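Section 3.1: Structural characterization of target chains.
Under the original work plan, the team committed to producing a structural model for every single-chain target entering the pipeline before any wet-lab resources were allocated. The record below documents one such target. The sequence was received from the expression subgroup and is listed exactly as submitted; it comprises 236 residues.
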Amino acid sequence: MYMKKMIFLVCAMLTLLFTDATAKTLVVYYSYTGNCREIVTTLTSQIEADVLEIQPAEKGLKYDANGYALGTQLLNDIKANPNNANSYPDIDPVSTSLNDYQTIIIVTPLWWSQMAAIMQTYLFNYGSQMAGKNVGLIVSSASSGISGVVADCKRLVPDGKYFSLNLWINHSNHSNRATLIQNWLTAVNYNTLTSISETKTKAATTFSPIHDLSGRPLTEEPAKGIYIKNGKKMKK
């Protein structure tokens, strides 16, 4: 039992060593009506990813009231002066470090053919930290096309390595989101895009832990005597 525990610990340590932490994926989303939250739940049932929800600092605002008056005003403020931090609505503090991730998937609603103002705030604050990282974009809308949201994203994250395709999920196909997401992940070669390098993977899979009877690791099989290899007692 002791030897098995030792081997398990060694293998666990090797897994940590051979796994590049920056290969991880972060899904960042804002959801006003709940549609984006459902999309994220479906997405994370298909891939391994951490999730960060962006929240407005002022709670309970009705952005869609009076013909989307408040939401439109927020967008107009940003459009009037997109380089001024004061143009963007405040959001709750974010503690998640983007240094821990190589792939960022942004899930956002569309507001009047533009990216939701709350998500724009997050990307204004942190988009520069996504430079050189893989960036995917999923947009939820009622029926409008997403070209304006794509333009906002590329303005706020100009140096991201964007997926070859964006994903648009609208009201008419929201119920079919699982298939849409699966097809999108395949189309952008997500598994290849986010995989650990072949060298590291090969090294991790070919390692065979060898120990003496006291549990001390050996660099190679001894020429003579009893030793432990892959949890089994061996003798030469």
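The longest strand covers residues 103-111.
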